[in-house]
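Thread: "does anyone have the structure for this chain?"

Original post by V.I.:
We have the sequence but no experimental structure in hand. Need at least a predicted one for the grant figures.
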Amino acid sequence: MSPDFLLHLYHEKKYHLAFEKMMNKAFPFLFLLFSFPLAAQDTGSGLDFLNISPSARMLSISEAGTASLTGPAAIYSNPSLLVFEPSSALDVNYTLWVSDVENQFAAVNLMKDSRALAFGVYNSRATDFEARDRPGPSQGSFSISYLSLSAAGAYRLGPVAAGITAHYLREEIFELRANGYAITAGASTEFMNGRIRAGASLKNLGEMEELDTEATKLPAEFNLGVMANLVEFTTPGANDLPVLLSLHMNWLKPIEENSSSDYTGRGNENFFTVALSANASDLLFLQAGYIFGPTERPFSTGMGLRIEPVRVNYALVPFSTGFGTVHSIGIQFYF
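Reply from O.Q.:
Generated one for you, tokens below.
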């Protein structure tokens, strides 16, 4: 059975996306399209793509980005971190999610003294869904897409920083359209000359217009995070490469129930993430993380290669249910 079996148009409303009759048979495949719950707006969030980190660098540490520097993608995790970055940067990413869902992300972070200003665009899209209002041949195909346009600002005063992001949101399903907004705000601070960083953020607070008959819920959440540089050592041999091992931890508390997410039971459960990263002479980076909680993608790993002024990142995220493996690649340009 393909995901197309999820997509039948209900005859009573021309544009209403119905799958009630197929629910029992198609339930295992709902996770394939967890980012696109379509008609079940009252049971989850169609904007669950906001729960998916837009960059390969952040995905590789299992999205433990509340206190970890990951570049311009911080506008979606904790905008206060933008001002702790070493320099301005441009970040472009492409992620092939399960069920051939494509996520594209691009952002720029502009730093000056103790201030940072960032802009980003994040798009998620799936195509070639068959439309039917009766048994038999399809009546054509349609696409599902979600868009976020964001602007963020951050200010640093000594070891403490605060930041806020404003998101314009748009969802399109068949001929249905809805617009909305969201706010993400965060704060962070550093200790011991930057060896330890702590952060907190409130994500995706806002609302959407009605899509057909109901407004889609936003996946709002609260996060706490810590990053610590654990140990630095030098590799044996002629090269003598310095290696820095760092620990990344994140605690997530959903504010809005989102049962359609790959974080199953998201409305009632907390999630705790632990990740490790190794930095070899600011040249080669290795990362891996694990999410403790009822999620379909608990493990992730990735790597990065930096040749000034460019860093290339890759992340791999297998789904534990066997629905597929996510691949993400990104390029960061520092200036």
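V.I.: this helps a lot. The first helix runs from residue 23 to 26.
O.Q.: and DSSP finds two helices and 18 strands in the chain.
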